[in-house]
Specification:
By secondary structure, this protein is mainly beta. The protein has one helix spanning about 15-25, and strands at about 5-10, 30, 35, 40, 65-70, 75-80, 100. The chain folds into 2 domains: about 5-55, no CATH class; about 65-100, no CATH class. The protein is globular and about 40 Å long. It starts with 5 loop residues before the first strand and ends with a strand.
Length: about 100
């Protein structure tokens, strides 16, 4: 038996563990999402995460995000209302309801 893909999210995977899994031939993938929107990253192709590239993720096609500066080199992910995430306009966390921040004001 072999592992087709080991995905993680909800918190960081230590560099030591991720690199060890990758070096052992386990394809490791980073997932990213929010409570309000669900997972917004795409599932990578095996060749996309070769050579220990497991630290990176790609936002899925059709999902539009804005990284809003919060100071001290920190950013908040704002997921924009789109065709795929049409339901966000009902509960957007910003006055124009065109976007959903990852924390409530």
């Amino acid at each position: 038996m072999f592992i087709v893909l080991q995905a993680f999210g909800g918190g960081p995977l230590s560099l030591k563990v991720g690199d060890a899994l990758s070096a052992a031939g386990v394809p490791v993938a980073t997932g990213f999402g929010t409570t309000e929107c669900g997972i917004i990253t795409s599932i990578p192709l095996r060749e996309d995460i070769a050579d220990c590239d497991w630290l990176w993720f790609r936002i899925a096609d059709g999902i539009d995000v804005r990284w809003v500066p919060e100071g001290d080199h920190m950013y908040e992910c704002h997921v924009m209302v789109s065709r795929l995430l049409w339901f966000l306009h009902r509960r957007g966390s910003h006055p124009d309801r065109a976007q959903m921040g990852t924390r409530w004001p």
